[in-house]
UniProtKB/TrEMBL annotation, chain A:
GO biological process: amino acid transport
Record key words, sorted: Amino-acid transport, Cell membrane, Membrane, Transmembrane, Transmembrane helix, Transport
GO molecular function: transmembrane transporter activity
Domain of life the protein comes from: Bacteria
A matching Pfam family: BPD_transp_2
Listed NCBIfam families: urea_trans_UrtB
Name this polypeptide is given: Urea transport system permease protein
Transmembrane segments: 56-82, 94-112, 145-164, 194-216, 228-253, 265-282
Cellular component aspect of the GO annotation: plasma membrane
PANTHER family in alphabetical order: ABC TRANSPORTER PERMEASE PROTEIN, BRANCHED-CHAIN AMINO ACID TRANSPORT SYSTEM PERMEASE PROTEIN LIVH
The organism of origin for this protein: Nesterenkonia xinjiangensis
Predominant location category: membrane
Membrane disposition: Multi-pass membrane protein
TrEMBL record, chain B:
Official protein name in the record: Urea transport system substrate-binding protein
Classification of source organism: Bacteria, Bacillati, Actinomycetota, Actinomycetes, Micrococcales
Biased composition (Acidic residues): 416-442
Signal sequence residues: 1-33
Alphabetic keyword roster: Signal
Length: 294, 442
């Protein structure tokens, strides 16, 4: 029983990381049908933002607090730049966006390598996030609890925005039927830009958070991009709710399989399960009922 | 306009077809020349008449392994410079031909062949991953050329065409185990590693050793390369109550592992972690504060106090900057060039057969202490050293073993099941081949 609870906690903690990496992607990929392979590199940029700020402030705690909003801004602006320069020309050619953004990702990786060097850099964890607390009979690192809290805040904020703000309504309208939305006077251009800003900004936030648990290196984004896509696809494209459920399910599944086998087998089995699941439900857990023909 | 464009395209196509055909022809000629060389025994195209002699460096200057291999390339240049300043080898200045292995085993094979057949180098230095070495091995054997390989590795190999200047298992892993048992009193171990040939082979050897010495293995976990989630592994490790951890994780995974380990309240006092893939250059990225006090097993540390090492570190930092660190593999690469020079001087010839005949008992006063080549297996003698990581990111020696003869097949160890080991390594290697392109270190 103890083990079940502790693996449940471990799974939730893994899931929260997955969700953080995926939630911005769920927005841009889900809402706009754009495959942004550079999303992982936006995460990496967020992580390096935290590293740079640590150099400026010297204090791990202060720099983390400043890094969260600043990385959102940096990631968001990068996203808008990418959208403006590249993606807006390719909204009807999803495969082209895949290749183009993949290239952008490689460029960003090399840029990080030139700026910060190829080896990983050390982003220190603030003292108040070190150590662990006892939870349901298992030791849970404080940093993981912080991440879980942050994810809950991000998802709650995002859902509130989508439900109650005019921007949220506009985004949903564009997703449901782009041309009808446009004829109704919604500026789809500015909606696209803003969606990309928020989605990419969330990648930046994810990057800052990931410095708390893993290494900060130019290839950091690559470790998360596949998992993030997995969560988005399994969750059902276009649904934040789907991403939430998929992320935690995958996290918990991974933790339980890993407990009785090994990490490699768990990774493999989770992939097999997702593929099998998509055979039964190609649209994922949830699907957007769209009135457009496409 | 359209027609003109079309015509141009057509002529372009013809051109490229011609070029392709030409390239094919050239390759065919190259291959034939190579075959002849093999058929003719030791006939080589090395030009020994000029004032200089060509040698080849092959390191990954791009791709995932560039992180580690560029440092090896740096010291190789340093060593060549030193040899040239001292008057060269047999009076000839070294002329370096460089190739980028690009972190791809196939590229290593192809480029090393170029170094041998087209550039006609007298010897080649480099390689890092076992995958890159295994890809180059048939090339060097086929052309009867010499490769100097600097990395510590899993052993179970001894090619006449490779001089191994890094540690083999009995000079790094076995002493580390003995240290844990005898000095730390560790009667149970937990094994954590990245999922590829080196950790799996190492852990298989550890299991054989443990059975003989009555040490309990409480867990054996592998994570995919680059994995950053150690929640479950750290939990299992903490609850296993193991006395120590044997760590064969590579690169970035170490950061996540040590953070998770630390946050569970484990530390170097209660459950020490002994790592065999973390050297000076990796510590900064992991964060010295995350790993301070933990143990490593290598033959060389930057902090070694002897004249050769002080000169080596000073020369390296003068050439590449005060902030740079030196590490075990770098030092082995540095030694390899000096050992080759000594072998050539001894043979008084650049001929591969003559140089190889001179290999046995060739010594070099290395920064780690004098190393000597064993002519039987082409490995070198090494002194095992256990180190403790300090707050400033360096490693202090806390235990030093005897100068150890290389024994890549563990023939002198009664507990080692050589057949099982070899079979295992082969299987792991085959299973690995598809996924090898990534950061397959050691």
């Amino acid at each position: 029983m103890d083990m079940i609870l502790s693996q449940l906690v471990a799974g939730v903690s893994v899931g929260s990381i997955l969700l953080l990496a995926a939630v911005g992607l769920a927005l841009t990929f889900g809402q706009m049908g754009v495959i942004n392979m550079a999303h992982g590199e936006f995460i990496m940029v967020g992580a390096y933002t935290a590293f740079v700020l640590q150099g400026i402030f010297g204090h791990a705690g202060i720099s983390l607090i400043v890094a969260l909003p600043l990385a959102f801004l940096v990631g968001g602006l990068l996203g808008v730049l990418l959208e403006q320069v590249l993606i807006r020309h390719m909204y009807h050619r999803p495969l082209d966006t895949l290749l183009a953004t993949f290239g952008v990702g490689i460029i960003l990786q090399q840029l990080a390598r030139d700026l910060f060097g190829a080896p990983a850099v050390d982003v220190r964890t603030p003292s108040w996030l070190q150590g662990s607390v006892e939870l349901l009979g298992t030791a849970v690192p404080v940093s993981r609890i912080f991440i879980l809290g942050l994810v809950i805040a991000v998802v709650a904020g995002l859902s509130a925005m989508m439900t109650w703000t005019s921007l949220g309504r506009r985004i949903r309208a564009v997703v449901l039927n782009r041309s009808l939305a446009e004829t109704s006077g919604i500026s789809t251009r500015s909606t696209d830009r803003l969606t990309f800003f928020i989605g990419s900004g969330l990648a930046g936030v994810a990057g800052v958070t990931i410095t708390l648990i893993g290494s900060t290196s130019p290839t950091l984004g690559m470790s998360y991009i596949v998992d993030a896509f997995l969560v988005v696809v399994a969750g059902g494209i276009g649904k934040i709710k789907g991403a939430v459920i998929a992320a935690f399910s995958l996290g918990i599944l991974q933790a339980f399989i890993e407990f009785s086998t090994t990490a490699s087998i768990a990774k493999f089995l989770v992939l097999v399960i997702v593929v099998a699941f998509l055979q039964i439900r190609p649209q994922g857990l949830f699907s957007v009922r769209t009135r457009s023909l496409a | 306009m359209g027609e003109l464009h079309q015509r141009r395209t057509r002529s372009l196509r013809t051109c490229s077809a011609l070029i392709a055909a030409g390239a094919l022809l050239l390759t065919a000629c190259g291959a034939r020349a190579g075959e002849e060389a093999v058929g003719g025994g030791t006939e080589s195209c090395v030009d020994v008449d000029g004032d200089s002699i060509k040698i080849g460096f092959i390191n990954s200057l791009s791709g995932t392994m560039a992180i580690s291999e560029t440092t090896v390339n740096d010291v190789l240049h340093l060593a060549a410079e030193e040899i040239n300043d001292a008057g060269g080898v047999l009076g000839k200045q070294l002329e370096i031909v460089e190739e980028d292995g690009a972190s791809e085993p196939a590229t290593f094979a192809e480029r090393s062949e170029r170094l041998i057949v087209q550039e006609c180098t007298a010897a080649v230095f480099g390689g890092w991953t076992s995958a890159s070495r295994k890809a180059m091995l048939p090339v060097f054997e086929g052309h009867d050329a010499l490769l100097f390989y600097p990395t510590q590795y899993e052993g179970l190999e001894a090619s006449e065409n490779i001089i191994y200047t890094g540690a083999t298992t009995n000079q790094q892993i076995v002493p580390a185990l003995d240290y844990l048992l005898e000095e730390e009193g560790a009667e149970s171990l937990y094994l954590v590693g990245s999922d590829y040939v080196f950790p799996r082979t190492a852990n298989m050897i550890i299991r054989q050793w443990a059975e003989e010495n009555g040490v309990e293995i409480l867990g054996e976990d592998y994570t995919p390369l680059g994995s950053t989630d150690f929640t479950t592994i750290a939990n299992q490790l903490a609850s296993s109550g193991a006395d120590a951890v044997f760590n064969t994780l590579n690169g970035d995974s170490n950061v996540a592992f040590f953070r998770q380990y630390n946050s569970l309240g484990l530390d170097a006092e209660t459950t020490p972690v002994l790592s065999v893939s973390i050297a000076e250059e990796e510590i900064e990225g992991i964060g010295a504060s995350n790993i301070e006090g933990q143990l490593t097993s290598w033959n060389y540390y930057q902090t070694l106090e002897n004249q050769e090492n002080e000169d080596f570190v000073a020369a390296f930092q003068e050439k590449y900057g005060e902030g740079r660190v030196t590490s075990d593999v770098m030092q082995s690469a540095y030694n390899s060039l000096h050992l080759w020079a000594a072998m050539v001087e001894e043979a008084e010839s650049f001929d591969v057969d003559a140089v190889r005949d001179a290999a046995d008992a060739t010594s070099f006063a290395a920064p780690e202490g004098t190393v000597t080549i064993d002519g039987e297996n082409q490995h070198v003698t090494k002194t095992p050293r256990i180190g403790r990581i300090t707050a400033d990111g360096l490693i202090d020696t806390i235990w030093e073993g005897e100068l150890t003869e290389p024994d890549p097949f563990l023939e002198t160890y009664s507990w080692a099941d050589e057949e099982e080991a070899e079979e295992y390594a082969q299987e792991a290697d085959e299973a690995d081949e598809d996924s090898d392109e990534d950061s397959d270190e050691d």
